[in-house]
Amino acid sequence: MATATVSRRLDKPKGYRSSDAALVMASMDDQSRRLFDEIKDITPDELQWQPHPGMNTIGMLLAHLAIVETWWTMVIVEKAEPASVTPVLGIGDDDDGMPIAEGAAPIALLNGKDLAYYRTLNDKARAYVHKQAAGITDADLDAETVRTRPDGSSVGISGRWYLYHILEHFSGHYGQILLLRHLYRDRAARG
Question: Domains in the chain, start-ordered, CATH in brackets?
Answer without folding.
Answer: 19-190 (1.20.120.450)
